[in-house]
Amino acid sequence: MNTKVIFDTDPGIDDAMAILFAQASSKIELLGITTVFGNATIENATRNALYLKQRFNMSATVCTGANTPLNIAAGEPTTFVHGQNGLGDIELPDTLPIAADARSAHDFIIETVRKYPHEITLIAVGRLTNLALALQKAPDIAALVKEVVVMGGAFGHNGHTGNVSPYAEANIIGDPHAADIVFTQPWPVTVVGLDVTQQSIMSNDYIKALQDQSATYGEFIYQISRFYSDFHKESAGLDGFYVHDSSAVAYLLAPELFKVKQGPIRVICEGPAIGMTLCKTAEKVFPVDDWHNKPKQQVCTDVDSKGLLDLYFKILTQSPKPL
Ligand code: RIB
Ligand code: CA
Asked: Is any atom of ligand 1 closer than 6 Å to the C-beta of 171?
C-alpha cells in the first residue's frame, strides 16, 4: 500500500534531491509539498518546488509556508550552501506556467490530515514552523497523523553534535521553538539527525553514475549538486556531500536501515546552546525534569550507509512511476 506523504521543505539542493526520491518511489503518494524559509527565501523555495512539479510532471499540490520563525528573528537564507536561487544557481525560467495553491502550508496540512485521518505521514526537512503553526491552530491533528519524520537536530551519536553551532543543526536552530512544539506533541516523531545524515556521503563518482543511469533525474541532480559539492569540499574536505534530507525519505521507505533509541526530546530555546536537541533515555524522574510527561519519540542513532545509497540509486534509476 502507498503511504500518503506531505513533504515540508526549504528547497534547497538536498531538499530537491529528497523530493525526487519521494516522487520516484512507488511506495509513496506525494500529496503535497509545503514550503518554508531556510535554505532559500520563501519566494525562491516555493518557486523551486513549483519548478520541480512542472519539470517532473508531479501531481503534488504546492503550498507556500512560513517566512519567519515563531519567536526569534529570521536568519539569512543559506545561499552559501545552496546558491542564490536555492538550486545551486542552475538556470531557472523567469516565470512558471503554474502557481502555488491559495492555501497556506499549515492550512493545507490541517485540511489534508483531517481528510485522511491516520493515513498521512509528514516528512519535514526544513525549519518546523509550518508543522508548529498547524498544531497551534488545530491541535486535533496530532492524533490524526500517522507518522512524522524530521530531518533535523544532532544528539551526539557517531560524534555529530551540530553544523551551525557546536551544538545545533540548521533546521532546529532556525526555529527552535517550533521544533520543541513538534517534538513534544502526542504524535509519533522519528528524528533523522546529523547523527546519521553525516554518516552517508554521496561521492562525486556516485552522482556521475546517477547522471549516466537515471534517465529522468540524473542530469538535473548532477547540475544542481555541483554547488553543494563545492560547499562540502571547502567546508568539510569531502569528495561529495552529506545525505541530509534524503535520509528522512529513506527512513520512511526502509526503516530497517536505521538503529533508533526512544525518549522524550526537548530543544534548547535560548542561550549559547540554542537549537540543541536532547533526548532523555533514562526512566528516572528528576526533581527538575522538563522531559517527564512528554511523549517518547524516536531518534536515529546509526545507519547502514551503503544500504541507503543503494536504495536511493535504485529508486532514482528505475522507470518513472505512472501518474
Ligand atoms: O542541516 C541540514 C539541513 O539544513 C538540511 O535539511 C538542509 O537542506 C538544510 O535545510
Ligand atoms: Ca532542507
From this structure: yes
